[in-house]
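In this section we walk through a basic example: taking a raw amino acid sequence and producing a predicted 3D structure, encoded as discrete structure tokens. The instruction is simple. Fold the sequence below.
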Amino acid sequence: MPLVANTTRRRLANGLRNLGPALKKTWENAQVRLSTMVLTDVPVVLMVTAIILTLFGVMMVLSASSVEQISSGVGAYTQARSQGVFALIGLVLMLVVGYLIPVTWYRRPAALTALLAVVVVLLVAVIVVGTTVNGNRNWINLGGLSVQPSEFAKPVMILWLASVYSRQGRIDVGTPGQTIYKGLMPSVVGFGLVTALILAGHDVGTVLVYAVVFLAMIMVARPSRALVMLTVGLGLVAGAAMVLMSPNRVERLLNTYSFWKDCVEATCDQANSGLAALATGGFWGVGLGQSRQKYNYLPEAHNDYIFAVVGEELGLIGALAVLVLYAALIYAAMRILLRSSDLFIRFATVGIITWIAGQALLNISMVAGVAPVIGVPLPFISAGGSALISSLIGVGILIAFARQTPLTSMVGESPAPANSKMHKDATRRLGLARIAEREQAVIAADPVGAGWTLDKFRTRLGLLIDGRARTPAPPASTPSPAKKGPVPPPPSAALRQSGTPHAAASQPKNQPEAPPPPTKKQQPVAPVQPSEPALPAGLRTIRKARQLPDNKQ
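The resulting token sequence is shown next.
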């Protein structure tokens, strides 16, 4: 028996030791498979999944809100009818954005900056003339409708951040100050302004979603270690400050993670009712429309805690079905991310799927008692017209990406379209491909100096302080009045950022100076191969897909 026990323990230890490499290998193989698939079915997957989630949400809003609506003296179908109207508007906008609007229209920095300005104006209007609901001042009445601008700001902010990071070049090279500036400017300006206006309305849950999206996008941009530490540190400090400023938030946090005692206080009523609903549902559920907790026991049953009603009425099967639908959205987004050769589309895809899936995870964690009550709706399912329409617009943007993004060329693919349908698809992607190639050519010419850099900021600040243009340095062939001989050219931006001493300074005085390097205009711009685009961090295993034909031989 001891020998058998030792053998079992040894096998278990070896299995655990090999689990990490096996999971890594499985993940890399999955990336290779997804990166070699065509995207013709992705728009259909996105559209069908979004429609199913939306219709399911209208049905669950009817079930969860009917009792409360009747007790309030209005019709049982009032909330569901309103949700159905918003669903119809959102689905139409999803199809318009996905199939009729070219990505080049809202890909331009000027267009995105204008949209961001409109969002900021609406958020300021909320603070001035907005409506307060449950302690949050996030709504404004426009033409008889209550609109939540912070929800519509999500896709705009994601596209704006994607535009910034797709033009920043490398943000991991240089001194810590240079990498921090390049990674946070100007993205933190727009992000900080929007989140500050939302915080002025006391909506910490929405700000948390914004923070998760911002962290995901900055991590994909391959930040330096100093930038990661600063971003995470500032996020933790800001989160702790927001919690400590409110005694109610502190109490909710302590009640959630106080596992050594049962919480029977008033602040735990909603969380306890949600857990009771999930426990009552069991495996199959009590039946659609048969929830007991919705009889005014569960606050916000049709909104933040609608997943508890889903678990109670449809059981574990219904809850898992909702998770599978969200997984389908993640799968489609991964297909776009791994096949696109446009950096803007990659960053935007990461932001949109992090927003939808991350918000769903936060809501489900809150209902399951893993996270404190933070007031985050479940995308597509919770009641709320602004959240539903903005989520459907996000899916529409992903559909547009899948239909218009330039594809990464793979080994073994025929460059010529095989039929008229493929020719039409290639023609639709051609315009965006040319724009992406021009942007990548600019970054490839100077990956360190592209985008917003600290050196450019210092130069512009100096010009602003001086009030006049600086006198240009004399050319290399013009003798200096202080000493004779050609003046060595200044170091390039790449040398200044990397800290490498200028080559002319290290030459002996007795030897003639080397000829000056060609200026930036004389340097030939290396053509960017569409098959070798810059890849986000963690996704560079896509290169293995181009070696698949060789591996199969």
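Looking at the output, two observations stand out. Residues 281 and 312 are 4 Å apart (CA to CA). Confidence is low (pLDDT under 50) at residues 469-512, 520-542, 545-553. In the next section we compare this with other chains.
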